[in-house]
Write a structure and sequence with these properties.
Blueprint (H helix, E strand, L loop, with lengths): L1 H23 L3 E7 L10 H15 L2 E2 L2 E9 L4 H13 L3 E6 L3 H13 L3 E4 L16 E3 L4 H14 L4 E7 L2 H16 L3 E8 L7 H9 L4 E5 L2 H13 L8 E4 L4 H7 L1 H4 L3 E4 L7 H14 L5 H20 L4 H10 L11 E2 L5 E2 L2 E6 L12 E7 L1 H4 L14
Parallel strand pairs: 1-3, 1-4, 4-5, 5-6, 7-8, 7-9, 9-10
Antiparallel strand pairs: 2-3, 11-14, 12-13, 14-15
Length: 401
């Protein structure tokens, strides 16, 4: 009897010890560095944090016996603050992977911190092509879109349709400069002309002087190499100036469904724009977007949908690798195709660029829309290998040529 009791106690002790051991494992932390309060808050912000949390919940809330914890911080669109947040997350808070990092200047700053610490960082909201070119790293992924693809899809379609003279309104930082440069290259390569450009500060409230210069250029297209609140303000004010009624077209080179909703179809109708995702594409996109909208009260942007997809892809790779070691996890991430509502047969290349289809949309007329958020009609699907920069053109030091 004594032996039986001692055996029971031993088994109970072993069981309780294993439970304690599981509970003692630190959580796996992933951290978002987001614009929570300024001109990109609708594009990423609280919606990106929600998307990351949804991905964690759908995955089951834990991996390798560790609870998964989602952190988020506001970088206030300041590159130095973004770098400090990344440093604190990786050095002090035990974060294993950083997601989103809306805006290019802040992403470039956080990317250097992650690169120095050999940690995985996935960019969903920023667009600068530099993130998968000169600033690439072995554990860096550029997931949703970039300035090259936006320029390639929108610029090419416009010039082919006869809209072959352009003037740019450009946000004066890395993203805007790259977007103007990449679009200019597409325009001139396909026989169009760039008649001029003007640069404006980030978060501009008054575009009047810039729009007057664009109007005076007589360019067929005014290309908006900006994003978020800047794009919304520029389009609204151009309507007040009668620019579209005067015959010039506006082309927002990066616009999201939230921007079109802010502008309204009456003003935005007919705009051509490139997107990586739209909520109303198919049953899969509608199913995810319905769940997202129940929480956020609006459909997801492409950046937010990309957060869900990339966080899920990362967690699956951690599980498959059996470790959070960045090299092992990234190996699985690059070897495993991405098939979900966001991308079909998506693939992360050696330069960190995630290759997937891009879409050219036209904004609907009010008479064509069935209700709020029914904003786009699909004009073309551009395969990823045509939309994004080729590896042969890459300036990423990791690419073997």
């Amino acid at each position: 009897m004594k032996h039986i009791l001692s055996g029971i106690f031993a088994a109970a002790f072993a069981l309780s010890a294993s439970v304690v051991q599981a509970e003692d494992k630190p959580p796996l932390k992933i951290g978002g560095i987001l614009d929570m309060s300024s001109l990109y808050a609708d594009i990423t912000g609280p919606g990106s944090e929600t998307a990351a949390k949804m991905a964690v919940e759908d995955f089951g809330g834990e991996v390798l016996g560790r609870k998964i914890q989602v952190l988020a911080a506001d970088h206030l669109n300041k590159a130095d603050l973004s770098a400090n947040i990344a440093r604190d997350m990786l050095d002090n808070q035990g974060v294993e992977m950083i997601y989103d990092v809306a805006a290019s200047a802040t992403a470039l700053a956080a990317g250097e911190i992650a690169k120095a610490r050999n940690k995985i960082i996935v960019f969903n909201g920023p667009g600068s092509i530099r993130l998968s070119n000169e600033a690439c790293g072995p554990y860096t992924v550029h997931y949703v879109f970039d300035t090259f693809a936006q320029a390639n899809v929108t610029g090419l379609a416009a010039v082919k349709s006869g809209l072959d003279t352009w003037f740019f309104l450009t946000a004066d930082y890395a993203f805007g400069q790259d977007l103007e440069k990449d679009t200019s290259n597409v325009i001139t390569r396909t026989g169009g002309k760039v008649l001029g450009s003007v640069r404006h500060p980030l978060n501009t409230s008054d575009f009047s002087s810039f729009l007057l210069q664009a109007q005076a250029s007589k360019a067929k297209v005014i290309g908006l190499a900006n994003a978020g609140g800047d794009t919304v303000n520029a389009i609204k004010q151009s309507a007040e100036f009668g620019i579209m009624k005067g015959g010039q077209k506006l082309s927002p080179l990066l616009a999201f469904v939230t921007d079109i909703d802010s502008i309204g179809l009456e003003t935005a109708q007919g705009l051509l724009l490139a997107e990586a995702f739209y909520w109303d594409m198919n049953d899969e996109t509608r199913a995810f977007s319905k769940r997202f909208q129940e929480r956020v009260k609006r459909p997801p942007t492409s950046a937010q949908a990309g957060v869900y997809s990339s966080v899920t892809h990362y967690l699956k790779a951690v599980k498959a690798a059996g470790t959070t070691d960045a090299a092992a996890v990234m190996k699985v991430m690059k070897e495993t195709p991405i098939n979900d509502f966001f991308a079909h047969n998506g693939k992360i290349r050696e330069d960190g660029r995630m290759i997937h289809d891009m879409y050219l949309f036209e904004v609907k007329k009010p008479s064509e829309s069935k209700g709020r958020w029914d904003d786009y009609k699909l004009l073309a699907t551009v395969p990823g290998n045509e939309a994004f920069q080729s590896l042969e053109q890459s300036r990423c030091p990791l690419v073997k040529k």
